What we know:
Elements: H1 9-21, E1 26-31, E2 38-44, H2 49-53, E3 62-71, E4 77-86, H3 93-109, E5 114-118, H4 121-124, E6 145-146
Parallel strand pairs: 4-5
Antiparallel strand pairs: 1-2, 1-3, 3-4, 3-6
Amino acid sequence: MNSEIPINEECDVEYAKLKMHKTVKYIIFKVSPVQTEVVVDSKSSSSDYQEFLDQFPEKQCRWAIYDFDYELDDGSKRTKIIFFSWCPDEADGRQKMVTTTSMAALLDKFRGSLHMQCNEISDLAYDADSTVSVNSASKGQTGLKLIWTAPPS
């Protein structure tokens, strides 16, 4: 039995804006109120990571795509699309189940993204001054220094 919820076409359109056109910095997705499809909850071109964090409700599940800027040890700049699965411990059990079962379709759609499972806000936190190890299967690189770009003025 397939319990995945279909993905609304707008999700594809917005993802193309993020990946190909670089006009969107992040997209937050949710299950529609009638639980019939995955829809865009919000999107932004802002590089303000705190603004991004503020989009995650305390007791509701979400998925997100973030176009993350980082720097390699040699100083060259790169970007990596990160897929966040937000499933807080305080969320309703049914919502957690729907989020988990529908995640595979989203991961398939956003192939090549780095997946991060987040259950509390500290899982989403990022210290821009630290060097973190990120293992990117598509590039095989580790020890990336992640950086933020200035928000558009």
